[in-house]
Specification:
Elements: H1 3-38, H2 49-70, H3 72-82, H4 90-112, E1 123-124, E2 129-130, H5 131-152
Helix pairs in contact: 1-2, 1-5, 2-5, 4-5
Length: 156
């Protein structure tokens, strides 16, 4: 292998790394803002500003993994099999999968007492889960999917 080939490959890896870092950073900050904005809808779960920041920082970090998981159908279904033939359906599929993931995670978290809702949390009828956490996992991953396609469009 020549030096040029080695240099080219490591350059591509560096670009890919930067794009992944940008994607994860966007996921983190979108979720951090959402978590902080919806915090008043949950039962009191922090004391003081430092505790507020730490709790929502950790939640946003966990949301990175959840968001990437929600994007899996888009990555495999559309990118591998349909190859951009159904571009308008991408956000819809992502939102539907996000809805399902959010409902399951909310049910688990509520049943084991990880968190509870305050009196102002709008509850989805028949499901018994909060509206804003479900919307979070429907809207933000769909937006991040669009951002991912924009950032990675020249990576192929």
């Amino acid at each position: 292998m020549s030096r040029t080939t080695t240099s080219f490959r490591s350059g591509m890896t560096g670009r890919l790394r930067k794009k992944m870092l940008a994607l994860i950073t966007v996921i983190f900050f979108l979720n951090l803002v959402w978590e902080m904005l919806q915090s008043f809808l949950f039962a009191p779960h922090f004391s003081g500003v430092a505790d507020f920041i730490v709790i929502h920082f950790v939640a946003a970090c966990i949301d990175i993994a959840i968001t990437l998981f929600i994007l899996l159908p888009e990555l495999f279904l559309f990118d591998r099999f349909l190859q951009n033939k159904a571009d308008r359906r991408r956000p819809v599929i992502t939102a539907i999968f996000g809805f399902l993931v959010a409902v399951v995670l909310e049910k688990i978290a509520l049943s084991v007492g990880i968190w509870s809702y305050g009196p102002f949390m709008p509850i989805i009828p028949f499901l018994g889960v909060g509206l804003t956490p479900v919307l979070q996992m429907m809207i933000l991953p769909a937006f991040v999917g669009k951002f991912r396609r924009y950032v990675f469009r020249n990576s192929k």
